Amino acid sequence: MDYKVLTQNVSVCPQITVSDLAEIHKKGFNTIVCHRPDGEGADQVNFTEIKEAAEALGIKAVYQPVVSGKITDEDALAFKQILAEVESPIFAYCRTGTRSTTLWALAQATEIPVNDILQITKNAGYDMSGVARRILNGGNTPTDTTDQKFDVVVVGGGAAGISVASSLLERQASLSIAIIDPADVHYYQPGWTLVGAGVFKPEETVKTMSSLIPKGVTWIKNAVAAFEPDHKKVLLDGCSIIEYTKLIVCPGLKLDWDKISGLKETLGKNGVTSNYRFDLAPYTWELVEKFSSGKAVFSQPPMPIKCAGAPQKAMYLSCDHWLKSAVLDKIDVQFYNAGPVLFGVKDYVAPLMEYVEKYNANLNFSHNLVKVDGPNKKAYFQDLSASDTTDLLEVEFDMLHVVPSQSAPDFIKCSPLVDANGWVDVDQSTLQHKVYPDIYSLGDVMNAPNAKTAAAARMQAPVVATNVLHDLGMSKTRAIYDGYGSCPLTVEKGKIVLAEFGYGGKLLPTFPAWLINSTKPSKLAWLLKEKLLPPIYWKAMLKGKEWFAKPKELN
Q: What GO molecular function annotation could you give as one example from this UniProt entry (predicted)?
């Protein structure tokens, strides 16, 4: 008997037999609901047999036969009534468990957010994306049709989304394009490291979304609830339906602050900060500027994360300030990295280690931050290299810079677009979806093994634009992405190790070594980061100007 738990009150299962009832009773179920009509299969046990044996064990048995593939709104409402009236926990079954799961999903439509329903059922092995529209409509069959249709729909108005929309328009201005994003503002997130170092002001890293949406692009200010890739439709909150010819998925990442127990309650106070949030980066600088002695702890979660070098950049810039303020010798600097190495591309490890030694920072690998006690200034780390990872290492701190673990947004993770790890499943060269050829993805949310940086999105945007236009019959060429990513490692105020690399850690420097040696700290690279990259981002990348980003053609 292979049953699946949906909630603590409801489990579902394929067809059961009388002999299964003893185990069902032992597991503590009080009610059985049968959703399979008698006589549907030759090997099927009739409900009356199940009912008699169940009631002999003190289990209530309810018969709600539903025809496979024909679940009505009334069926869902009836099951909702059953859930309200019978004693839980409830054990529901049909031929495969799908009907019971579908009825539960529709019955909970007004009680649980659609993303949670889709994720719960997906975790149980049941794909409910086919009824997502009904869930969004309160469990009822929608009577509406497509609200809007576009040649290209872009999900996400971040760096990747606006850049790819602009790149498309630069190549083919006649396209009808929509960007779906509920946000009012757009952030230049690479600048937050420098906000945390007192170099940038927070307001330099933010603009209104309306000022950045390319002219000629329709901005749909709403959130995506689900995808119907077989029908080329995107479902929005409120059950609006957007139809596309081509879909580009790039909503960025979700920061999982909740995965670190106690963190949300102490962020922004008690010496706990993070450059990964707009409102907290100024607090980082406030702490660094006032810090003169004690223990400073910096954490890095398991990969993947956006800008993998950012956790240690915060450490380097803080240490540089303390060194120049002549207080570093009074500060115990600890870096706890969930990974096994300082940086994933070996060519950059040696120059970074020179700064680790210069700042007398202590490296602790394979340690993941799982709990923070802000008022008592204690952090708790899981030793991932230990045989028993339940024992936690308690670390006292005076200042704690935290980087949360990161994942795809919930509406992506529960969609049919993802691989087994929850990332949009694409070909790493063309960035085309492996199952749905009318879908492309770029930026942080897809599963190509590249660094998740704005520089990567800058290179990916023209590749996706070229390939989408080829598929639409508007271009003769296709393009490939070589995995390029860039991580300007700010090792001190005024110098940067400009890490640029592609798939497999291959170095892909933009500039000749005589100008900027990417494996050496460089003043010119700092100038690039501080003075040139922000205007390049706002005025070139987001405008479809592909400086140093011409896509490579697919042979």
A: sulfide:quinone oxidoreductase activity
